[in-house]
Write a structure and sequence with these properties.
Layout lengths: L2 E5 L5 E5 L6 H7 L19 E4 L4 H4 L4 H7 L9 E3 L12 E4 L6
Parallel strand pairs: 1-5
Antiparallel strand pairs: 1-2, 3-4, 3-5
Length: 106
């Protein structure tokens, strides 16, 4: 089971085990990660699951789709590694992934 570490705005970390095929958003919700609200439930229509993928992981995670890119235009402080957690499916290849939750979502 892959492990993902969510970094909070205060520098604390929360490591969670994620079943393969689960979205980052759902993993965060299931494990009480603060700052991931997921108002739309994973429909890629609210951007309240915005997160930053740690440097070095984007190639494995992949780039956002056109729809996701449009939604990322709505977030506070988008960055080059911004993704919506609902659009990132955790796989064994992502074991050890580090994700930062934006301070603006707390």
């Amino acid at each position: 089971m892959p492990t993902v570490t969510f970094l909070n705005h205060d520098g604390s970390a929360q490591e969670v085990n994620v079943e393969s095929g689960t979205s980052l958003m759902q993993a965060a919700i299931d494990n009480g990660v603060e700052g991931i609200v997921a108002e739309c439930g994973g429909a890629c229509s609210c951007a309240t699951c915005h997160c930053y993928i740690a440097e070095g992981w984007m190639e494995k995670v992949g780039l956002p789709s056109d729809l996701e890119r449009d939604m990322l235009d709505c977030v506070v402080k988008p960055g080059p590694t911004s993704r919506l957690g609902c659009q990132v499916s955790v796989t064994e290849q992502l074991d050890g992934l580090v994700v930062r939750v934006p301070e603006a979502q707390y």
